[in-house]
User: What shape does this take?
Amino acid sequence: MLLLQILIGTFVLLANSVSETAAQARFSYSGEFGSAVGTSFSYSGDHFWGPITAFRVWEHPSSYIKALQFQFAGTWSKTYGYEQGKHHEVILFPGEEITQISGKHSTYVYQLIFFTNYRRTFFFGQPAGESFNAVPLEQGNVLAFITGHHNGAGITGIGMHWDQSILPALKSYAQIPEVGNSSG
Assistant: This one.
């Protein structure tokens, strides 16, 4: 009986270890890049609405990134940073996802370059400071959300959180039967 309890306990520990390793491999984090001073912010939680479908970037002319805002499954989230002046808005195509973010940082985040799975690239800000390149650890993962810091003038730090794409799961729910094809 004692041997059976030991075997069951060992099996449970091994099963938990394997499932935790699989869950950890699914997520990854890149950052935080910048000085990270000021108030922290996070889009964590907003990503449960669905995938990133658009984003906005405010930039100080010839200088740093002032503010960021993301749209998740068609719903705009809160803006973080100093939302003043004109912003740039990027609307992603259906099925398009952010696969890499590069840029420059120092006291502020000075440049952001977004890359997508549709081979589109978007540049914001100025190339000043130290370079960074953020990519997911797992092949096929995409940007789930961003965290970071901001102060009264702009974005002082940024970190990227990567996860498996949820688009394939959404596509399976959205399949529409062909005309003339009866099911059932």
In short: DSSP finds two helices and 13 strands in the chain. Residues 121 and 183 are 42 Å apart (CA to CA). The helical segments are 2-26, 167-173.
